Amino acid sequence: MRTYRGNAIAVGVLFILCSAASILSIAPLGGALVAPVDLAKFAANDNRVVMTALIEFVWAVTGAGIAIGLYPVLKKFNPALALGSVAGRLVENVFVVVGALSLLALLTVSQEAVGAGSAGIASAMTASNLSLAVREWAHGFVAIIPFTIGTILYSYVLYRSRLVPRWLSGWGLVAGVLCLVATVYAGFTQEFGFTSVNTALNVPIGLQEMTLAIWLIAKGFDQRALASRAESEA
């Protein structure tokens, strides 16, 4: 019987890396961008912009890797939901990359505008604000919906299978729903980022993911659940 110990450790590490990347992506530019963009200042910080995009690419790859790493284990208990969780996290991270590409597009627009002088800056404001809007909606709304769906799906399978303690997977279910509520709220209010409501509703999922990561690295999947499933398949 396979123990899937390697999968557990890999997923735990990916959870930590993904969370770290999503938080650290704020650091190079010192916070969220707001419209109207100061194109001259933005163009002068090209290294920081590229660094932000690279961190966000790491965020996307590690986020997708979480569901891919869980899939071989979860499919033993519910193939459809396991595949759905992978699809959700993959779609999420496609839009994380879209947000990163929008940031790089904004950098190109700002550099060309600065090179053209004051007239160029004035004419580029619409394009720059559009790039920023795409990024805000991609990261603050569109990417989070499939993330929460993927989280709820794999948390449900973990809960039913008892691969991890039910208090931990149940926490993931509740936290995923709260995160979805926060995302829908942000979509209607168009208040993305660290607002009081978003922060309060998203803290549970952040804490749950770190707890799950530590559990998977330290203890792995419950071997009794895997043994029971192996016996039923024999």
Brief write-up:
This protein has 234 residues and is mostly helical. It has nine helices and no strands. The protein has one domain (5-233).
Features:
mainly alpha, elongated, 234 residues, 0% strand
Description:
The protein has helices spanning 5-24, 39-44, 46-74, 79-115, 118-142, 144-161, 166-189, 196-218, 223-233. The chain is mainly alpha-helical and 234 residues long. The chain has one domain. The longest helix has 37 residues, at 79-115.
Topology:
Blueprint: H1 5-24, H2 39-44, H3 46-74, H4 79-115, H5 118-142, H6 144-161, H7 166-189, H8 196-218, H9 223-233
Count of β-strands: 0
Number of domains: 1
Helix content: over 70%
The major sheet is characterized as:
none
Based on CA atoms alone, the radius of gyration comes out at 20 Å
The outline comes out as: elongated
Report how far the terminal alpha carbons are from each other. 11 Å
- Provide the structure class: mainly alpha
Number of helices: 9
Order of helices and strands: HHHHHHHHH
Hey, roughly how much beta strand do the residues contain? under 5%
Q: What would the average pLDDT be, to the nearest integer?
A: 89
Low-confidence stretches: none
